[in-house]
User: What shape does this take?
Amino acid sequence: MKKFFHFSILLSFMLLFSIKTFGQIEYQKLDGSWQGYIVSEKDTIVLVFDVDSESKTPVLMTFPNFAMQDVRPQGMRFANDTLQLSISALAARIQLVYKNENEMDGFWIASNSKDTLSLQMQKTNHPLRINRPQTPKEPFPYSSQIIIVQNKKAKVSIEGTLTLPQGKGPFPCVILVTGSGPQDRNSEILMHKSFWVIADYLSRHGIAVFRYDERGVGKTTGNFSTSTSYDFTDDLLAVYTHLRKHKNLNKKQIGLAGHSEGGLVCAMAAAKNKNVGFYISLAGPAVRGSEILLEQSKQLFMVSGKDEEYVNFEYAFRKKIFEMFHSISDSQKFAEAMREYFEKTMTEISEEKAKEHNISKPFAEMWIMQLSSPWMKEFMSIDPANYLRKMKCPVLVMIGEKDFQVPHYQNLPIYENVFSESKHPNYTLLKMPQLNHLFQTANTGSISEYGRIEETFSPMALETMKDWILKTIKTN
Assistant: This one.
């Protein structure tokens, strides 16, 4: 789930840094594009330099694997055929020696880990670029409208985009709901604009789509940091009620589709408003957040190559934390118990192991802070089954085979049990082959693949959604 994407290195690459202004003459021999590779035991990172001696920013860096472009070094110097770049936020330095018009050799020096990795840069006319081929491009065979919805209860103004197919309508409509973390209407991650891709595809096939900025994001007002899944549900219900009055939409055929936590929010809304036309869960959870987080961390550690001993220790350590969270309701007592647990664990394991697993007093405080946020408190405790069993509208649940953030084996059986016990009249549960949490066709499902994969949203998954919606509205 997106809130738990701990893209520490990826997020660092997103930062833009101030740069000192140097003379332009020194950089003339470097003009053009250069490409190289930072090779470690665990990964190979592609690095591209774009050098323009006429620019105030002579060197811009791009990391295509992570969808990070135009990164500006904090410090830069080129003298005596030696290029030096300082990037403090990455805790790294680059030193390259200009050998000839086509080659530079040197090092990537990570100051935190004290690793020094060799780096060879080659001049190229065809550097690797970030490619997102599914991002919609004009002309569009549908119209778009900006719609503003008022959640009067929360005094929040919600802005989104409605795409309407060609023709008079009224059209069926899907309201898209983003997952965890502050998300805009396109649900953009690593330059992948998945909700725009979905809206474009469905609207080309006769289905209207409304996507909106989350509370406190983009053009939507409100405070995201103090909001919970209940608040996001209220926003969604305000949007749903507003769109039912739209003259070009069939009010009986307006459904909800949510990704990750958005699937939970949609379930909560559909359980509360029985008029919802249909419900689509795109990797939405069927178990409590604490169960999701526990299994998620285990799987992500495994797919990242951690050994069995490491994984088992982390699983047991985190499980105890979550048990304490659910058993101690008082915030102050929970914080005290957490500090004691960390201190006790530090006395029982070696200093090296404590460092390896980030078990320290500062990390205890970080855990306390994270588990004390309004959003986390609710997410950890909400049981989606309580809402799923109340729904009567048609249901489609899709979870990727390689989704390690909301694993299919943990969640699909719960969906099956809940809908079977509640005697739900119309539900479809699908494990989508080869797809990860973002519904990309993936090799491993690892988070590190998200930015490297050019595909934004699987065409197979798009077609599955479209076919199911059209069949459902025809049948119902």
User: Anything to note?
Assistant: The domain at 142-288+382-475 is CATH 3.40.50.1820 (Rossmann fold). The chain has 13 helices and 19 strands.
